[in-house]
Amino acid sequence: MATALLTLTPSSTEGFVTFQNPSPGSTRRPLTSVHNDPHGGETPEERKERMDNVRRIQSSFYKNSEADEGGGGGISPDGSEGRWLARDPANPAILDNLPLWRVQWTELPGYQNVLNVHVPHYTHMFRRLTLQHPRPWLFGSVYLPGGSENVGNPDYFLPEQDGMSDDELRSIGRGSNVTLTGTLMQITHCVSREDGRLTVIVQGVGRFRILAARQQVPYAIARVEMVPDTEAWEQYLLPVVANTATDVELSKALMKVTKDMAAREDELFRDLEYLEPVFNEGTGIHGQGVSALSNFNGTAQMDPARIREEAEKGFSDGLAREAERFGSDEILIASQSLKLDSDFALDVEDVEFLESQVWIEVDRMIKLLQRAKPGMKVPIPSQIMGLLPADTDWPPDFQLEKYAETLETDQVDIGTHTKSPFVRVAKRFRDYPKIRRASRLSYVVWILLSSILRSSPSQELLEETSIANRLQMAIDALKKVNGALDLGLGR
Length: 491
What we know:
Elements (H helix, E strand, L loop, with lengths): L4 E2 L37 H17 L25 E3 L2 E13 L8 E6 L2 H13 L4 E7 L22 H6 L9 E12 L5 E18 L5 E6 L3 H5 L10 H24 L1 H4 L30 H23 L2 H9 L11 H24 L5 E2 L2 H4 L14 H10 L3 E2 L5 E2 L3 H4 L5 H11 L1 H8 L4 H6 L3 H22 L3
Parallel strand pairs: 3-5
Antiparallel strand pairs: 1-9, 2-3, 3-8, 4-7, 5-6, 6-7, 7-8, 10-11
């Protein structure tokens, strides 16, 4: 993997990971050149004309018309059956009729990839999604042993009723075979190739849990619930003493509403957190890919007051809906009076401490690698460096702060095939929530560890909803690596 090189005089370029070099846990197939196919004597011009006609015929099957499945072709505001990406205003964390890409690797939030889509049912799925629906083009990536080989295997079918427990799944012959936690993906580009394959650039932007399948084959479609990090909603959960039945109801209502609000917050920050990579005609063929990690959008406008205003409105509206559901005057009163007060916010010092420990161990690992092989250039993606906290009291021998400052001072454009500006998040967006920065680090730091450990617990990371626990997993792995390096150096 070619990335930014950390030396005493750091390189100003950040390389890329091609789709042949997948992110942790991936076993994607490399794309092959489409230019070696026999053309049956066609001239290049004749072949181009024929393929253009084929694509026009294909597109006619995916027309976004009012007559198609009940109208609109886009997101259904009323959650009508059969429409993809349907929203339920009463349940902001629910996304209905989400198409699923079930494959034998786990995608993670913060990563991006070039997909080579050649299996017929998935080319149909992606064409329908991008030709019949407006942006954002969202789908779910879910781990499935064997990938497409097991899509039609009943042993791997998804539950068809909301709320089935693991025991209930096992009772119908599933359970251990079925993965229900997946990554919400957004498509930035989808291009048809001459041989009918699709080149699709995707970014992992969130986590969900499957509630119920709407369709099993030829590809799954499901009702899902977005699952924000525990710390993201706990920071808003006001303390309620549950001594009475009313208090218990209010506690449940608050928990649901704060989770919904955290899921909405994920959407509000998405434009800032995920810069759309530039697509060129070589992307996806001839070994060209995109950087394995998504970059932040340094030109995005972040308005904390607007985000807080939207969150408070969602909080109040959500409580009002819960008051009607429970028939509770107390909840209704709370919906009109409770505000998101920073005095009630969860103390984030534990997460910040663990975040700093990850960085200290990464810095130590780099120094040990350089001692093991003097003059060695240690690769570290610049997108990770952009997550380094600012105004932190680092140890005296901490190298990474100087490296990040060099990237900032030089106003570096990062990337190899496509370029984007280096963004030091803590300085460019000073009001950006520290919890969100730590969450991103807890996933992307594994791109360093997986190249050393030759594996990573990708699905375990995805299913772990606590930022603190994911950071601790990274610290433990880094200490393991550093201990082995110490031993090798005879220290």
